[in-house]
Automatic annotation (TrEMBL):
<keyword id="KW-0547">Nucleotide-binding</keyword>
<dbReference type="GO" id="GO:0005737">
    <property type="term" value="C:cytoplasm"/>
</dbReference>
<dbReference type="Pfam" id="PF00069">
    <property type="entry name" value="Pkinase"/>
</dbReference>
<dbReference type="InterPro" id="IPR000719">
    <property type="entry name" value="Prot_kinase_dom"/>
</dbReference>
<dbReference type="InterPro" id="IPR011009">
    <property type="entry name" value="Kinase-like_dom_sf"/>
</dbReference>
<keyword id="KW-0418">Kinase</keyword>
<protein>
    <submittedName>
        <fullName>OLC1v1012124C7</fullName>
    </submittedName>
</protein>
<dbReference type="InterPro" id="IPR008266">
    <property type="entry name" value="Tyr_kinase_AS"/>
</dbReference>
<keyword id="KW-0808">Transferase</keyword>
<feature type="domain" description="Protein kinase">
    <location>
        <begin position="11"/>
        <end position="285"/>
    </location>
</feature>
<dbReference type="GO" id="GO:0005524">
    <property type="term" value="F:ATP binding"/>
</dbReference>
<dbReference type="GO" id="GO:0005634">
    <property type="term" value="C:nucleus"/>
</dbReference>
<keyword id="KW-0067">ATP-binding</keyword>
<dbReference type="InterPro" id="IPR050339">
    <property type="entry name" value="CC_SR_Kinase"/>
</dbReference>
<dbReference type="GO" id="GO:0004672">
    <property type="term" value="F:protein kinase activity"/>
</dbReference>
Amino acid sequence: MASIHNYFRALYICESEGHGGGGIVYRCKHKNDGMTFAIKLIPLCDSCEKDIFPEVRAIFLIHPNILPCYKAWVENGLPMFPSFQDDLKQMDLKCANTPTRILYLLLEECEGNLESLSLRKEFVGPEILDIFQGCVNGLAYLHSKDLVHGDLSLKNIFMNAKGTAKIGDFGCVVEADGIPRPIGGVMKYLAPEIRKQLDDEKGLITKASDVYSLSVVILELIYPAPPGSTESEREHFLSNIKNSIFQEQTKVPRTVMDVRERMLNPDPLGRPSAQSISSNICQILA
């Protein structure tokens, strides 16, 4: 096997799978055994390298509902394959300066994220319940390690070939120490107390704000926006759902909806913890 610093050279890069969380993701295949993986390349510069420690902590957590990272390493210089240079130009880099190093993360290959999968199909009740239970179990484990994801969305939850939901993309993760951090994430998933801080340079991202974001994710699976909707139309549709302007659904039990509604409480102190939600869902589905 190649040494860790030459491991990237032991991989065929098959195709780009997009970018997010401060990096670019490619599907790749090992030249020796043919195993397929996802590999995420995160450009680094001197000013941003110190901020990646919480992300590296998170990716090495071992839990069935957290996207596993098999290897992580840093190399000087930028990879020379042409598509990377093109993809790099399209990124909104976190680096204040030109990146000089790359953090490589070798990850489990998945079927897709919930956003891409939901465009192909509408999830049915049992699938939504499995996703809900898996995500809240993974989130409870993340929170037990005093880490806050900070960017839960349909894009950042993945499904593997066995249909297991995996929380990934830890580019906005912070340590739950009560210290304000730069706010990341997509507006429609941000909790009300986080949105109020958007005008500030930094804000307080908490475990309770993660719980709110996960509730929005589950809402989107239960009430998918009409096909062909624009992003603004999807946000308006979701806003109506949050404000209880919707038809009664039959996909998941009312008791599950009650739990999800408590997660959407505008007051962060009124939201249940991920651990208590996990216990409630287990009892309901037992």
